[in-house]
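Readers of this paper often ask what the protein records in our data store actually look like. The remainder of this section carries one protein's record, kept here as part of the documentation.

:::
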Amino acid sequence: MTSSGRVEVMIIVLDGLRPDMVTADVMPCLTKFQQRATTFSNARSVFPSVTATAAASMATGLLPGRHGVAGSEAYWPTIARDRLIDLTDHRMVRGAHQALPGGILAGTTLGDALARANRSLAIVDAGSPVASTLLDPDANRNGHWTFSTVDRLATPTPKAWDEIVARFGYPPERELPRFDEMRFATRIMVEHVLGELAPSVAVLWLCEPDASSRYREIGSLETENALRQADRRLARVLQAIDRRQGLETTLVVVASDHGQITATSSVDVCREMRLARFPVGGRERLVGADLVYAGRGYGSLTPTTPDSALLERAARWLLEQPWIGNVMMSGGNDVEGPVPGTLSTSLGGLWHERSPAHTPAIYFTFASDDGLDRHGVAGRGHHGAIGAGCLGTHGGLNRFEMSTLLMIAGPGFPCGATNSAVAGVVDIAPTVLAHLGLGPLDGATGRDLARLRPEPRRTIKVETAAGASSQSVVIADVGGPRLEIGGRSDQPTS
């Protein structure tokens, strides 16, 4: 793959950054960058709002139902009938990519499109190998370059690991907070990728504030320090681009993949369902289970054999639980599921043949609200990450989980502007390709944001009810349904 001689597009992802965390005192560089960028104030993640799914949407410009990675865990019996595929594990992601016909992602990726146009892509991830793998699953075949600070096995192109270790030494040991990993990754981006490789498109994925938010609380001093450190890494990259070629001629995208809310309590879904005499299995065991539970900040239930009666009974039971937010089912019509009180999975675009929504199945979220945690941070909810010591959570439809940062500077994007149109992670790849003068991705839901003029949010609130229970979601129908906010009117989280 030939080098363009200059970086035409720089993408920086700050994992788990909520837009309301960006303040001048904590993130001065990002605040200053906002003055020379267009801010998309209604930027959204995809559902489930987890890194694997969002990264896949960034790569393809597709909703999860079209690219096929519809969560952080998957039950794909064509690969394994006795266990879940953990999509937070880069080894399983790579194995699934090799085992699934056509690979793990349906559709053309940004990496594929760049390779076909003889353009280059380089990715550096600071401890998020699943994200970097899904951004360019065929990096080797495409002739691209990807490096992960985790280890050589986590690096999709091992030659990149060898190059970096020979020149810079081994990355620092992983520890919380991930400051040393971010420093090392940023150095690699500035000195090697920008300074030597000069790809057409460069991506730096920073693992903070997600890591600290999850294990040290969203509003904690530790997370605030993580934000400060991430901001300093951003500053170094922007300064390097400005010195080397000028920011005004470079398309710079600063984004996050999802938000976070404070976890108020954990729910052992398998245990609760077994107590209710459901034959359910999860990540610890699947043998003998008639229902498979997958998910962490969200949940899905898939029958191992066709049994609509069992699934309907499970849906009715879920609707009665105080820790449940939304319950969506396949079947029914385009709005309501087959069981009264449920919503249709088609509202979230979860229709891929590999996703549970394609067969008789249930997706659900945990109950959440906009209340304040002990640090005064809005957004609280239950979660299903048993035994993980989880203090921050994401995956559901709470507006603070779905809200993402999206700022773009460069040709076509007015300085200091705010665009309130519906936008998000699915728009990044189409915007990049349009900037490079390359054709759109096949069937992409996302749009070229440089051509998106400010427009009012066109949203629809969909509600359904059964007895005393009701639920609703807000969707934006722009190139396909985009779930925004969900909730139950009768179930507070605390």
Q: What stands out?
A: Residues 489-494 have pLDDT under 50 and may be disordered. Residues 221-244 form the longest helix (24 residues). The chain has 15 helices and 25 strands. The chain has two domains: 9-261+396-451, 263-370+459-488.
